[in-house]
Amino acid sequence: MSSDLSTGVAQNLRDRLGDLVVLPEDAGYDQARMPWNVAIDQRPAAVARPESAEDVVQIVRAAAEAGLRVAPQSTGHGAAALADTDLSDTVLVSLAGLRGVTVDAGARTARVLGGSVWDDVLAAAAPHGLTALHGSSGGVSVAGYALSGGLSFYARSKGLAVNTVRAVQLVTADGSLVRASADEHAELFWAVRGGAGSFGVVVSLEIDLLPIADVFAGMLLWDAARAAEVVPAYAAWTAAAPESATTSLRVMHFPPIPELPPFLSGRDLVVIDGAILEADAAASDLLAPLRALEPEMDTFGRIPSAGLVAVHMDPPDPTPALTAHAMLGSLPADAVAAFLEASALPGVFFTELRQVGGAASRPVGSGGAVSSLDGEFLLHAVALAPVPEALAPADAAVKAVTARLEPWKIDALALTFIDGGGVDPAAGYGASLDRLRELKRRFDPERRFAAARAV
Ligand SMILES: Cc1cc2nc3c(=O)[nH]c(=O)nc-3n(C[C@H](O)[C@H](O)[C@H](O)COP(=O)(O)OP(=O)(O)OC[C@H]3O[C@@H](n4cnc5c(N)ncnc54)[C@H](O)[C@@H]3O)c2cc1C
Predict the structure, then answer these.
(1) What is the extent of the structural domain holding 106?
(2) Residue-wise pLDDT tens digits, 11-43
(3) pLDDT tens per residue across span 136-184
């Protein structure tokens, strides 16, 4: 991707937007274009940094006048999913300066500005004994996660986060600021709940919060030498587990780096983590078969719900990574054996089985284009790519993992886990795809918006 603006267009953007826009010749361009996933070298025509909804209106109008596309980006956690898109004619709208959360504790809702991240929501909600269907990283944005589904450690009991979105305020392709909800611009509201950045730049959302002040959550950790025992035991455990449990199993290979705590640095591990929405005694009974495998560490217990976001140990700082995923319909013994083989393949940082099913798999009648996710497990592989030469091997490594489990794959994808690598997102939209495309043509006839997982 190369940025190559004509002098006239660049001058026009500068005249219209002043300091809101950073152009390739500006000293701050390299910093402004840097996504959280620093493996991705995105080079947009310009980066715009709004601080208000009105700024976003001006940016979209100026881009349209200049004949440029617009790509909303809040954190760049999903930047790999945009990497297949040529951004040389695109203004990247970085929403990092548009953060803030207001909680209405009585109504159990939050109004969230467009670039806010889950840590912002948890900090505002926790004092009221409330939480939200956040994912495993507090640094991921609410808009980018929730409007593409959003799979949390509450998912099997509470469903996908997208179903907690009550209203979305967005700047549409004609530069209008629109509030979309069940009662206003209902078709756009349907489309953006799944279609996300393909339909506009979201400047705020209203989401439901949950009255969960504390939760039974944590992790169990073994040396990877125990994987051949732990993985089949986990498969058997999940087959019987109630919907109150949403967990993940990862086989992880940590490089020896001093920044890591000694229990991780340089080690190969099996980690099971997640949440169980039961009283302590019932949750402990449920965990007993896994605890019987005598993990080296066991942190499961009751914690404030705001602490759940730390349980999966996702990196808070920018990280260069490539990933691949697949949805699995079941996990019989031969799939477990294939997962064990895949988890030992070279070049992979971790190989994960995330429990899905339950409420996450049940479509919601009042929902949007995406309201559920088919499959019993999400298979996920992550490889680090700290230098450009590592990109191709990392991509090959994660794809080798999902290829090993080909026989158990179903025709579905979790939109939030589509992370580049030339993956067609169609399977993430399922039966909604045709209507979404029709609405894209209607609401954005000139294809103004460029988005990850484009419809
Ligand atoms: C460490 C890590 C942990 C994760 N954990 C989970 C998890 O537990 N569960 C899960 O479901 N997913 C998870 N994800 C995936 C993540 O939810 C998606 O990549 C998500 O799209 C990231 O959103 P973002 O806005 O932070 O990223 P960005 O790269 O900024 O945005 C991705 C896309 O979201 C859209 N978007 C973002 N902000 C706006 C906006 N304001 N207006 C319009 N469109 C917008 C755009 O289409 C954009 O291209 C994780 C990713 C990482 C890297």
Answers:
(1) 101-211
(2) 889 999 999 999 999 999 999 999 999 999 999
(3) 999 999 999 999 999 999 999 999 999 999 999 999 999 999 999 999 9
Q: Are residues 62 and 112 in the same domain?
A: no
149 C-alpha vs ligand 1 centroid, how far in Å? 10
The number of distinct structural domains making up the chain is 3
CATH number of the structural domain spanning residue 29: 3.30.43.10
Supply the pLDDT for residue 421.
77
Token pair belonging to 35:
């996504």
* Ligand 1 site, CB within 6 A: 72-79, 82, 95, 114-115, 135-137, 140-141, 143-145, 148-151, 196-197, 201-202, 314, 416, 451-452
Give the DSSP letter of residue 326.
Answer: E
Is there a single domain that holds both residue 164 and residue 264?
no
**237 three-state secondary structure:** helix
CB atoms within 10 A of CB 9: 19
Ligand 1 atom 7, closest CA = 135
Over 70: is that where the pLDDT of 2 sits? no
Judgement on whether residues 92 and 124 belong to the same structural domain of the protein: no
Q: Do 423 and 298 reside in the same domain of the chain?
A: yes
Tell me whether residue 152 is in a domain: yes
What is the pLDDT, as a whole number, of residue 4?
58
How far away, in angstroms, is 347 Cα from ligand 1 center? 24
10 Å CB burial of residue 437 (0-12, 13-18, 19+) is middle
**What CATH number should be reported for the domain holding residue 176?**
3.30.465.10
Q: What is the pTM of this model?
A: 0.97
Neighbours of 144 (CB within 10 A): 27
pLDDT digits (tens, 9 = 90+) for 392-437: 999 999 999 999 999 999 999 999 999 987 899 999 999 999 999 9
